[in-house]
Amino acid sequence: MSLRRLERVTELIHQEISKRIPLLKDPGLGFITILAVRLSADFKSAKVYYSVFGTQDESRRSQEALERAKPVIRGHLRSLENLKDAPDLVFVLDDSAAEAQKVLEVLSQLEKERRSEPDVPQTES
Fold this sequence. Notes:
This protein is of the alpha+beta class. Helices cover about 50% and strands about 20% of the residues.
């Protein structure tokens, strides 16, 4: 298969999953953003990277809801004219944004502490 076709199908899957998630009626779904899709070269499996805005418990419930929704999402993907068969979906939580936020908070706290320390005069030796 050509690299161009792989890229087009990957983008199509990304767009379609992004559109379908808000339409799902599962109460466990939180505020989910589909960040990326990595489709295997044989088109048989796709890793779907997503983030969830909320707590760890909301992330866990969203992961469970996505697992329950796999057959529905794959069924929708099968109906697309560009795909002969829908790939197996593997949902992967990408919490790099949350980790980055934690790092920024630590850095901000360190900066506040540094600013609140009185300047200590340096003695010359």
